[in-house]
Amino acid sequence: MTDNRKLIGLAVFLLAVFVVVPWLIAVTGRKDFYYTLTSVALLSIASAGVWMTFYIGRINMGQGAFALMGAYVAAILITQYGVSFWWTIPLSGLFCVLASLVIGLPILRLRGVYFAMVSLVLTEVTRLLSLALPITGGAKGITNIPLPGAISLFGITLVPDFATLENPRIAFYYVAVTLMVLAFAAMYRLVNSRIGHICMSLQQNEELASSIGVNIVHLRLIAFGISSFLGGVSGSVFAVVTQSVYPSSFTVTDSVNFMLNCFLGGLAYVFGPMLGTLTLYFGWNLLFETGEFQLLIYSTAMIVLMLILPNGLLSLGENRRKG
Amino acid sequence: MEQVIANGLYLGTQYALIALGLTLIFGLMNVLNFAHGQMYVLGGFVTYTIYGQLGLPFPVAVLASGITLAVIGGLMERYLFRTVIRRSHREESTMLLAAATAFFFDAVILLIFGEKQRGVPKIVKGVFNHFGVILPYDRIVVAVIAGLMILAFILFMKYTRTGRAMRALAQDRVAAQLMGIKVDRYTMIGFALGAMLAGVVGGLLVSITGVNSGIGGPISVKAFLMIMIGGAGVAGGAIAGGFILGMMESVGLTVLREYGDVTYLVIFGALMVFLAIRPNGLMGKPWG
Amino acid sequence: MINRRFALKSAMLGTISAMALVMGSSFSAYAANDKLKIGFVGVTSGPAAAWGTSNVRSMQTLAAWWNEKGGVKIGDKTYDIEIVTFDDQKDPKRAVEGMEKMAQEGIHYVVGPNVDDGAAAVRPVAEKNNIIYFPYAFPKELYTAPASNAVLGMIANYQSGPAIYKYLMENKGVKKVAFLAANESDPLSQRDGGVAAAKALGLEVVAQNDTYQNDTRDFTPVLTPIVALSPDLLVLSGVAPANAPLIIRAARELGYEGLISTETAQDAKVLEEGAGELANGFISVGGASTPEIASDTMKEFVDRYTKMFGEYNDESNTKVYALQYIIDTLKANPAAIESVDEYKKTMDSFSAANPYLKGDAKLSYVGTTSFGQKRQLAVPMVVNEYKDGAFQTLFVGTVD
Hints:
The complex is a heterotrimer of chains A (323), B (288) and C (400).
Chain A: H1 3-28, H2 32-55, H3 63-81, H4 85-107, H5 112-132, E1 151-153, E2 156-159, H6 168-191, H7 194-204, H8 206-211, H9 216-241, H10 252-265, H11 272-286, H12 294-308, H13 315-322
Antiparallel strand pairs in A: 1-2
Helix pairs in contact in A: 1-6, 2-6, 2-9, 2-10, 2-11, 3-4, 3-5, 3-9, 4-9, 10-11
Chain B: H1 2-29, H2 36-53, H3 58-87, H4 94-113, E1 127-130, E2 133-136, H5 137-159, H6 161-171, H7 173-178, H8 183-209, H9 216-230, H10 235-255, H11 263-277
Antiparallel strand pairs in B: 1-2
Helix pairs in contact in B: 1-5, 1-8, 1-9, 1-10, 2-3, 2-4, 2-8, 2-9, 3-8, 5-6, 5-8, 6-8, 9-10, 10-11
Chain C: H1 2-27, E1 34-42, H2 49-68, E2 72-74, E3 77-87, H3 92-104, E4 109-111, H4 116-121, H5 123-128, E5 132-134, H6 157-172, E6 176-182, H7 185-200, E7 204-212, H8 220-228, E8 233-237, H9 244-253, E9 259-261, H10 268-275, E10 283-286, H11 296-309, H12 316-319, H13 321-332, H14 340-349, E11 352-353, E12 362-363, E13 365-366, H15 368-371, E14 376-377, E15 381-387, E16 390-397
Parallel strand pairs in C: 1-3, 1-4, 4-5, 6-7, 6-8, 8-9
Antiparallel strand pairs in C: 2-3, 10-15, 11-12, 13-14, 15-16
């Protein structure tokens, strides 16, 4: 693809999420889609993190743990220390990076299913911790988290106080989508940088990469740290959108779903997690009309998709180009 | 304390048998079968229907569970996993397929058998109560059958032609193919066998813990834990992992009960530390 | 290869369009009366599916029954009741999603969610969109001011627990109590409430920290240390219907001889299959279908439910009430169909006959003692004892 086509693609995408989608919602009156799409955007940020660990050849089923951590950090900072929501986004992310360094150092040595399983256990450990620690409010969780306040620079209000808005859902949609665009732009940049190419070599053969002088321990930690940062960011915004957080906010099911999103979109494509999340989450929602057959139709569609496109949805374009 | 150890051993035999089927499929195809727990549940419901509802003898019901699942497993391998493995670039992609089949089974089971917890009449009445150990007879019977099945499985893998072929496959797929082993055929048999084991355990345990449509997922996760402790892809690892987890739960729940909510925190924490020290479990294949 | 791919693709397209057709046709149903939509957001899949399913099916049974009789007359209009359901998979994020869907459908009255975290998570959405919802969850903040849109659909454990413990102290000589709960939000909160109530009554609490993972299938290891303490009463706080028979059976087989009780509703059939005669004497809180107190309407409801879904669930004894309350309150004040403020006004004075109980029992909103405002359905607090496949009424209490 030439640079021009990439730019056009980007412009079309930005136009779609920032203008066309809100316009379509306004025309059709489906206001509930704001929350749905906000969820999709946030979950796809967390999924992007999981994709990053796939990129270094690790199956990560622990993203739910970091999303939960992020959610709690944001909730605690906002409700107990009065920190502004806007600061808690990066702070939650950084907290998760620190946590991921401590946890990652020993467990990143594991590979394949062992890493997958340990990360899965990590999710459950985080849930149990949030039930047991005094600061998290235990079983009752943290509720009544206030809506985000205003941002002003030199006396000019850039972002209004969400509580004063007629429909904060729209504002949250823009926040989530902006974060999603930033996250994926950063991922795209990273994957196409030198570090990205080295990561790719980790995915194929760690010993070989190490023998040509790549510090694989550092690289793995960096990738895992980025992954956890995205998980934390996603969780922190989610806590504020739903104005509450509980030990059950992100569970093993979510961890598995983040991973499935990556698979469905396609592991070889940076934007795979975004499309995967949209398809899985939105698909489930659209099927809500089918009542008790919802899960049956959903799972059948997944199996069929997998049979037709085992390398993910985005491999569709590739096949066509080849054949 | 005797009771605690007896509990652990008894749990261990159950767990080991659950883990065996999962590890077999993993060893042969590198597929982490998310639907393992759902297969267990399906086996449980087959036994529930035949023994609990139709009133046929229990062994017949368990046998039927095994056969049903073997057929389902074989079909799944032939028409789903084989296609996806052949056409995907990264073998992890099968995880999505496995998860999708798990959801599919969940949906079908919920629609057919309903949302309620189900149970069957006890197969043997009475309770063993000597030497400070209390164990109901039906648990002993199930544990003995499970133990015998584990033994039979090991012997089968060691001494029969099919078993040897499957072990060769698990060790080195390409080499096995070059030696003239029909890879496709034995992979299918292996998958069917793994599914059958899940179905049989489900059938056996329905006589003790009953079955309900929602427990498939949690059972899968528990089975993952076991094969991870013991080492994935190795029969001995699954058995060891099953017993270790059973013992850990039994001892942990007794020793740590004062600390309440942290019991499982400690168990899971210990697991993570253990794996950090031994990245391939007790005896797993290094490539995991 | 191209042919094959083409075939697969067209097969997929075909499936999707077939699905669309089926979905489309199910909406273009007959329409004589106006539709009145009532929502449900709760869990109908996964390990806790029994909770939400008994809710949904109670609602669907009642709606079908009323519609068959020509609809429900509210004010001078007759409506057909349509139940819109959303499965939140016990995930608070999805529960919010479900409530947004209900708002989108223009629904003002929603039954559910079934668990604490879901019920608390949907609160901002419900308040913003003028939805009154009827959770089966116990956190007091949901029902005390400034919250005003949630109405507790059943008896809370902090209401029934003390009554049960007191009864057992006085009639069965219970002195030592042990608590056992799953390590999840609802059961743990209920356990804490139960422990406090037991201590307030002067009972000795011998075990209050024992927990289990909700996916536990064999409870022998969990129960071994508790049985060794030989309490007179074992309280299973917030126990899931699927786990209750397993716990009872394991405890009895370990030689436990005391009483076992819980403050949530259970199903007799599940207990019978899972624990058989070992479950005899198990105490739980149910609605109103024990033969002593069930009216003919209740019996017909059970019949219709059984015909529609193959098997009755005793949890529906409690869950039949929410929809009845909603419709009866709307009948009392038709303006409430469009305005939840009217509904809230009506709640303070509402009273109607309770069709499910023998005698002249009344439906009314209660909760003044617990919440300081009327935000609870007056469901008869029937404390049951399980005996040989059925529940027997131990005593009937009330909440104010």
